[in-house]
Amino acid sequence: KKLVFATNNQHKTEEIRSALEGKYEVLNLEDIGCLVDIPETADTFEGNATLKSSYVVEHFNLECFADDSGLEVDALNNEPGVYSARYSGSRDSLENIQLVLAKLEGNPNRKARFKTVISLMQDGKNHIFEGLIEGTIRTEISGSKGFGYDPIFQPDGYDITFAEMDMAEKNKISHRAIALKKMLEFLKRG
Ligand code: ITT
């Protein structure tokens, strides 16, 4: 069975493909010939996930799901949040990481969480699935796997960052994996 995943982010596509291997074939925006950068103008993860999934329904008449996600840092009033992809004004992960580290410099409160909200558009209805994982922000970058803020995020109960984990290991515990599991349970019931 095929599922359309409304993303331009190759890393998200890889994580979702790996998690759904043997269950679903995952097509991303490029695969369905959608070459636009869908505007994400909402101020919530749920709002932006819904903008992406409904764009595909409207313009391609395909059922589809989308993931809007980001990092919330307690000491930064939950920033970067929905602005995670372009926190520094650029999509460059290193610049975004450095901005978070600079803003947290000297701050002992390193608590943070990754959140994913999935919007699944099916039969004209929007189904929402959420996943989150608590952790802390390291004082320095560590690891080269993963993407985005992975090199500075250490999930609670671990002494390594997401960027030091293999994709399979991250996929066992991540915010995205938790939201995805909920969506799979829903699809199984349907
Ligand atoms: P699409 O909208 O095309 O799916 P995007 O990268 O713009 O791709 P978002 O708008 O959801 O996705 O922004 C999420 C940003 O949050 C992403 O670019 C990363 O910087 C960060 N992020 C999300 N999930 C992450 C993860 O698992 N590990 C590290 N950083 C993550």
TrEMBL record:
<keyword id="KW-0479">Metal-binding</keyword>
<dbReference type="GO" id="GO:0035870">
    <property type="term" value="F:dITP diphosphatase activity"/>
</dbReference>
<keyword id="KW-0546">Nucleotide metabolism</keyword>
<feature type="binding site">
    <location>
        <begin position="147"/>
        <end position="150"/>
    </location>
    <ligand>
        <name>substrate</name>
    </ligand>
</feature>
<dbReference type="GO" id="GO:0046872">
    <property type="term" value="F:metal ion binding"/>
</dbReference>
<dbReference type="InterPro" id="IPR002637">
    <property type="entry name" value="RdgB/HAM1"/>
</dbReference>
<dbReference type="GO" id="GO:0005829">
    <property type="term" value="C:cytosol"/>
</dbReference>
<comment type="subunit">
    <text>Homodimer.</text>
</comment>
<keyword id="KW-0460">Magnesium</keyword>
<dbReference type="GO" id="GO:0000166">
    <property type="term" value="F:nucleotide binding"/>
</dbReference>
<comment type="function">
    <text>Pyrophosphatase that catalyzes the hydrolysis of nucleoside triphosphates to their monophosphate derivatives, with a high preference for the non-canonical purine nucleotides XTP (xanthosine triphosphate), dITP (deoxyinosine triphosphate) and ITP. Seems to function as a house-cleaning enzyme that removes non-canonical purine nucleotides from the nucleotide pool, thus preventing their incorporation into DNA/RNA and avoiding chromosomal lesions.</text>
</comment>
<dbReference type="GO" id="GO:0036220">
    <property type="term" value="F:ITP diphosphatase activity"/>
</dbReference>
<keyword id="KW-0547">Nucleotide-binding</keyword>
<dbReference type="GO" id="GO:0009146">
    <property type="term" value="P:purine nucleoside triphosphate catabolic process"/>
</dbReference>
<feature type="binding site">
    <location>
        <position position="170"/>
    </location>
    <ligand>
        <name>substrate</name>
    </ligand>
</feature>
<dbReference type="GO" id="GO:0017111">
    <property type="term" value="F:ribonucleoside triphosphate phosphatase activity"/>
</dbReference>
<dbReference type="InterPro" id="IPR029001">
    <property type="entry name" value="ITPase-like_fam"/>
</dbReference>
<dbReference type="GO" id="GO:0009117">
    <property type="term" value="P:nucleotide metabolic process"/>
</dbReference>
<keyword id="KW-0378">Hydrolase</keyword>
<dbReference type="InterPro" id="IPR020922">
    <property type="entry name" value="dITP/XTP_pyrophosphatase"/>
</dbReference>
<feature type="binding site">
    <location>
        <position position="68"/>
    </location>
    <ligand>
        <name>Mg(2+)</name>
    </ligand>
</feature>
<dbReference type="GO" id="GO:0036222">
    <property type="term" value="F:XTP diphosphatase activity"/>
</dbReference>
<comment type="similarity">
    <text>Belongs to the HAM1 NTPase family.</text>
</comment>
<protein>
    <recommendedName>
        <fullName>dITP/XTP pyrophosphatase</fullName>
        <ecNumber>3.6.1.66</ecNumber>
    </recommendedName>
</protein>
<feature type="binding site">
    <location>
        <position position="69"/>
    </location>
    <ligand>
        <name>substrate</name>
    </ligand>
</feature>
<dbReference type="Pfam" id="PF01725">
    <property type="entry name" value="Ham1p_like"/>
</dbReference>
<feature type="binding site">
    <location>
        <begin position="175"/>
        <end position="176"/>
    </location>
    <ligand>
        <name>substrate</name>
    </ligand>
</feature>
<feature type="binding site">
    <location>
        <begin position="7"/>
        <end position="12"/>
    </location>
    <ligand>
        <name>substrate</name>
    </ligand>
</feature>
<feature type="active site" description="Proton acceptor">
    <location>
        <position position="68"/>
    </location>
</feature>
